[in-house]
Amino acid sequence: MAFEDQRTTVYKINPEHPESESLPTLRTEELLLNMGPQHPSTHGVLKVILELEGERLVKSTPVMGYLHRGVEKLAEDGTYHQFIPHTDRLDYVCAMYNNFAYCRAVEKLLKLQVPERAEYLRTIVAEVQRIIGHQFWLSAQALDIGAMTVFFYCFRDREILLDWFDELCGARLTTSWYRIGGVERDLTPSLIDKLKQFLNYFPPKIDEYQVFLERNRIWLGRTKGVAVISAEDAVNFGLSGPVLRGSGVDYDLRKYEPYSAYPKCEFNVPVGKNGDTYDRYWIRVMELYESVKIIRQCLEQMQEGPIMADVPSVTLPPKERVFTNLESMIQQFKLFSQGFDAPPGEIYCGTEAHKGELGFYIVSTGGGKPYRLKIRAPSFVHMGAFDHMARGYMISDACTIFGTYDVVMGECDR
Amino acid sequence: MSVAALTKKILHAALFYEIWDAMKVTFRHMLHRPMTFQYPREQRTIPDAHRGALGLLRYDDGRERCVGCDLCEVACPSHCIKVISAEDTARPLQRYASEFYIDITKCVFCGYCVEACPVNALAMTKMYEYSTHDKRSLLFDKKRLYDIGERHLDDGKKYLYAHNQEKNVEQSREYRYYFPQSVQKSTQPSPKHLS
Amino acid sequence: MGLKPATNPDVEAATIELSIDGKSVTAKDGVSLYDVIAMTGKIIPAMCYHYTFDPFGSCGMCLVMQEGKKAPVRSCTAKAAAGMVIRTEGEDLFLARKKAVEKHLSVHPLDCPVCDADGHCELQDMAFQHGVTNLANAKQKFIPEDTRSPVLDFNMNRCIACAECINVCKDVLMIDALQFMKKGGFNQVVAKGDLALDCEFCGDCLAVCPVGAITNKFSKYLYKPWQMKTTTTTCNYCGDGCQLYLETKDEEVVRVTSPLSWKNKWGDRSETAKGHGGLCVRGRFGFEYLDSKSRLTQPLVREGGQLVQKPWLETMHLLVERLTEIKSKYGADAIGGLVTARCTNEELYLFQKLMRAGFGTNQLDSSARYGHMNFVLASKRAVGLGRTPNDWEDLTKAKTIILIGSNITETNPLTAVRIKEAIRVYKAQVVTLDGAITNIAKLASHPFLIKPGTEGAVIDGLVKATIDQDLVDEEIVAKHPHAFEALNSAVENVSLERLAAQTGLPVEAFREIAAIFAESPRSIILCGEGIVRRTNGYQNVLKLMDLAWITGKLGRAGCGVNTVTEEPNEQGAVDMGAAPEFFPGQARFDDQGVRDRFAKAWETSLPPVGSGAHLIEILKRCKSGQIKALYILGENPLATLPASMEVRAALERLELLVVQDPFLTDTGELAHFVLPACTYTEKDGTFTNLEGRVLRVRQAMDPLGESLPDWHIMTALANAMGCRWEYQSANDIQAEIMKLLPGYYNLGQPRKVVPIPDQYLSDGYTAEVKARYQQTPPSGEHTRPFSLLMGQLLVHSGKLSTQASGLIKIAPNTGKLRMNIRDMERLGLQDGAKVRVTSNRGSLQLGVQPDQSIAPGTCFFPEHFNEPPVKDLMPVSVDATTGVPSFKQIWVSVEQA
Fold first, then answer.
1. pLDDT at residue B190 above 60?
2. Shortest CB distance from C111 goes to which of B73, B119, B181?
């Protein structure tokens, strides 16, 4: 097939060669390649238009919106409380973190103080979610690059935590466990036991994953020096999370704007040097160890106490009071049918999710519904740097680069 | 780098040592029991808190708990519940849900309806196997929901207990909601929790 | 505003200054402090206060701190006084208010899940706002629910004893049907005397109830507020044009609520003068016909003597075929049309355009012909204004109101509330002249009972008494001395004594009424169906104009002669030209300039002058075979007009009868084509109410079944008949009307027009006035002892409301003749006894029931029901000038059967 368009350049091989006059001309052209939206390594339904020169990526344009569901608009329709299940479906791999970030934003708007035990519970579950997220990323990235075994082992361990979630809140993925003002359900002794068991079981498993990848020359070859981004560029592109730290920027909201129980825990923030895919891999694996550390500390420090703030105008009354007390009944009805009365104002609250900074921006004009809700999804911001990071690499690296952001299209398209 | 180290490195590279290292892990797993199970024959044990299909519950005396207050309808983030309430012809002056629909294809299983219900009439069960060839049968009506509630009564009660909605079975009587509007005669004794 | 500033609208209350939260505020002296605070934009909670009535002060929520007082004061009952220093916010006040809420909550049942008020409950709001938790000593009442009334259920467990219901009933509606009674240890609201509630059932108590203590039986337990879609629209029962909120759930109308509610509790007296926002029984409870099972959902076509359901397309093809055939065979004059005044302005406009431009005939009329046309033509003749000159505000602020021949609380309940307001707040003198003991007469300062059918004679007497007593405004009559002279000579022979005997009104009464009317600075005459729907209606309205003219009330602000309309859009029907004598905008059909304008606008030639026919003439022409095809839109002449009109014969003679209606009416059963139309909830448009205000009608639901809005059907029909109409929505029609009648939709409150009778008085007045006062001797029919009247009930409106099951439950067709109890005793009749009623036209056997509103010597049957066919006893007399048929009164004899 010959495409006769203006991109086509016709030139002779080695024009200096005297015989070239007699050689037939060879036509080369830039190739436009649609990757996705149904490519397995595009993590959902992302399409990227790749401009190729040979196998080199000249330009790549991500086309987003295949998974757009109007979540931000949906938020304007329901009460603040009703939006929590919708956040589950943003980054569907790590619903807990979305819940957490959203609840934190609303609490910031309401200036609501969350009880201490709830803060610890939130931290524990968020870190468990971080482990799940990184496991998922690791398995998917390894699979994209061609290492299947890691995928199985990661999913095996992830399964333990998902079942733990199931026992905690009744769902493995769409958790909706966080509530504005606290959490829905306390950890039972059995859950704590299971978590403790897991904490003992898990660190050797991380080593196991590393055995497959750390020195594997294919892995090294496919990740070292691939998709390099300088610290300056990373900051300019607004990257965050492991992608930013991989370039050597020591920026973690858990440290810089400590929230929840993080200030009470000791942990390191691993930072990379080269800003390549390998460094980002390394950071994520190191964060697995750190997460285990944080959960351990939280479990130790956690005291008995309430798990929900007791603010009658915002939080639901305990159910047993609803049956017998009129004022709690009224509270229940008002909160579910009209929601709480949020003060007018604007709020932005960013939370360090495992992908990066997950922020919620809420405009309230008073009343029970947000006037506008904007989600700063790390996946979306990271996609902005795709072209910059992919330029000049081979087409087969495209998969690596998708993966290195840990992109989830549910969050990216919203 | 010392010669020994260099030699070791070359050797490792030549012999694909890291592959053997990894293969060791892989082969070790051949001795483990498989993590997977054969689904239809083997079933997962589902925790009490599991948010499965919704069912409607009755009190122990067989009365419908639901009073048709429609709070589940407004609490539902995906608008999948529709309650049609009316006056109960059998018991005048009592409100009840004459029709109750849950479009389970729209349901997001968030459990808000259960949380909202002021009489704990709704509960989530461990039932999750209801796939069908006919999508229309996934609009659960009142009869179907009561059927589910009856068949999975224990699950429902355990769910309510697990999510702090109701104390365990013995105490659940205390959790019963009383209907003052049902008073037909002013001589009716007041319920226990109020006296 | 609570605690009225003045009883006289002319006297302004003194302006005072006080300080609220550190800000200086000016207010009127003597006004409730609550309103002054509300005026500054600060809304403090109050559960028992509503601006429409005087403060009661039972809830203890509206507490404010007044400097110099130790304890908080209730702002609603406190009067604003000069120099007050008020603080409305603060922790102490919040806690005091919280305590008040707790007091109410502690005896409130756990009813939220089953309560209809849930989500629209002030107690809930207050409890939530004040963050009440952990109430100590909650106890419950166990009061059985009072379900005796057919409309409202009283659940006194939920009552917070705010007395809003009692106050609104007593103060605003002056019905006083509710009271407090100590029962079972609690103060409970009960119907007067603890009987089953039996009142006008306006439901305003339901609207102001801040909790769920009073509930609506027709929508009980059917809804929660969050399930419903609310549409603001205009009621289509009477000409008052009340705004209402139609609350729908999918395709079902659940309830109707009014702008009056506990939610808008702050306001101003000047707002209530324009209407307090309440509704009447029809508006609030008569919604069930909208989604009735008996609605037509498919076009019907007559095939072999049967009406068969057909799809729209086929029906329209058949219909157009028949119409074209008739038009080509017999000409355009073989087609006629009738339209109901329950249609929107847009549809009425389109109807007359269809008849005139589409079919080319001027044989069209609307149901305004049944009475309102008398007033319009008389008023247009006299002062050149084809509508009522006064609005509700004028009515409220009038000093004297003469209500003649109008049972206004039954026909137009919300206009009646304006008169009640005039009586209550501004102490107006109200004269009622009616043949029945009306409810408004019980409140009036000068209630007079006259013999039925003598309203005209009463006016003669009033004019005579005015001239006799020299109450004439010399300055005004001096402008037209000839006219006054003619009037003087016309009434010369009138003898008050003879009139007194004829009407039953004493001579002194004539003199007194004349004096009251003439001497008051703002006097309004309101004539109802007793004038406009009876014989000589046109002349009687002109006589009222005479009365107003000689006393100098014609053209003075706040004075005038007014009427009330029965159907929502009778005024609109006239304004839109749905009458053979008028073009849209009440331009005369025979005016050449106007004809040219409309012919140009419609790009057609108009039917010739003189070819037009009004309702009675159309029926006559049908009978004579001149009209072959009749297009009836919502009208039901067969069920409305008495048998003596031979409507059935006329309709059966037609080659083509097309009926377009939401229901299968009596007329529809005779039709060849029945087209299903929508009710007003399923279309957009406007109504023009009796004040001349243009009010919006909004679509609340999708059309039921395959029914379509009338304008849609008419557009389709016109296009099939070869017109090229491009209306996509009611808005397009509106745009066209706006172009033709500039300013019609901008009216809002109609422009005040000063009625000027000069033209009329100088042109032909002297010639026609003589005939007006020629006393018709009492007719020979008087040989029979009883006067049988047919008229409206409060609960019903036309035939439409009989489709509303709720209204039928309140007022079913008893099939009984209503008589005064004394007459019944005299005749030895028991309640329910069978009687034979005989008129000159025939006789009829039916039951009898006592009714205290019926005057001795009269008996009454509601016009809404034809079972038994009492209407067939009636003769029809047609007004020579206006063609208005009157058939509501006859002399009968009643004997035990």
1. no
2. B181
- Asked if pLDDT for residue A25 goes beyond 70, the answer is no
Tell me the DSSP string of C788-847: EEEE--TT--TTGGGG-HHHHHHS----EEEE-HHHHHHHTPPTT-EEEEEETTEEEEEE
The 3-class SS string of C242-254 reads CEEEEEEECCEEE
Question: Per-residue pLDDT for B189 more than 50?
Answer: no
> Domain extents for chain B?
54-178
Task: Based on the fold, state whether residues A142 and A119 are members of the same structural domain.
Answer: yes
Read off the CATH number of the domain in which A220 is found: 1.10.645.10
Residues in B closer than 8 angstroms to C157, CB to CB, are: 180-181, 183
Same-domain pairing of A35 and A53: yes
Task: Provide residues of A within 8 Å CB-CB of chain C.
Answer: 312-313, 317, 324-334, 337-338
CATH 3.40.225.10 holds for B54-178:
no
Strand boundaries in A132-230, DSSP class E = 178-179, 182-183
Domain of residue A28, residue span:
9-63
Tell if the CB–CB gap between A215 and B176 is shorter than 8 Å.
no
At residue A387, φ and ψ (nearest 5 deg) are -60, -45
Residue A30 belongs to some domain of the structure = yes
Q: Does residue A406 share a domain with residue A352?
A: yes
**A276 with A365, same domain?**
yes
Same domain for A247 and A275, yes or no, is yes
Specify whether the CB–CB gap between C344 and C532 falls below 8 A: no
H or E stretch including C446? strand C446-449
Angle at C125 between CA C119 and CA C131, to 5 degrees: 130
Among the partner residues A324, A325, A330, nearest to C128 by beta-carbon distance:
A330
Query: When comparing pLDDT for B35 and C325, which is higher?
Result: C325
ipTM, two decimals? 0.80
CB contact under 8 A, A337 and C131: no
The stretch C387-405 carries a mean pLDDT of: 87
Alpha carbon distance B109, B132 (integer Å): 18
Q: Which of A319, A325, A327 to mutate to test the interface with C (most CBs of C within 10 A)?
A: A327
Q: What is the mean pLDDT of chain C?
A: 85
Could you tell me which residues come within 8 angstroms of residue A343 by beta carbon, excluding any fewer than 6 positions away?
A109, A110, A364, A366
DSSP SS3 for A412 = helix
Query: Tens digits of per-residue pLDDT, C96-118?
Result: 888 888 888 888 888 888 888 88
Q: Domains in chain A: how many in total? A: 2
Contact B49 A167 (CB under 8 A): yes
Confidence band for C747, pLDDT divided at 50, 70 and 90: low
Cβ of residue C328 closer than 8 Å to a chain A Cβ: no
Q: pLDDT tens across A395-413, in order?
A: 888 888 888 888 888 888 8
Residue A53 falls within a domain, yes or no? yes
- Domain limit, last residue, from A63, A82, A103: A63
Distance from CA of B138 to the nearest CA of C (A): 21
- Whether residue C674 has pLDDT greater than 90: yes
Q: What residue in B sits closest to A333 (Cα-Cα)?
A: B71
pLDDT (mean) for A85-100 = 88
Full set of structural domains in chain C with CATH: 15-105 (3.10.20.740), 122-285 (3.30.70.20), 300-368+569-692+694-740 (3.40.50.740), 391-558 (3.40.228.10), 780-896 (2.40.40.20)
Three-state secondary-structure class, residue C550: helix
Spell out which residues of chain C touch residue B194, defining contact as CB-CB under 8 Å. Answer: 138-140
- Contacts (Cβ under 8 Å, ≥6 apart) of A18: none
3-class SS of residue C787: strand
Q: Residue A284: is its pLDDT beyond 50?
A: yes
pLDDT of residue A23: 57
Residues of C in contact with A324 (CB under 8 A): 110
Q: Are residues A144 and A234 in the same domain?
A: yes
With a cut of 80, say whether residue C173 has pLDDT above it: yes
Residue A44 and residue A192 share a domain: no
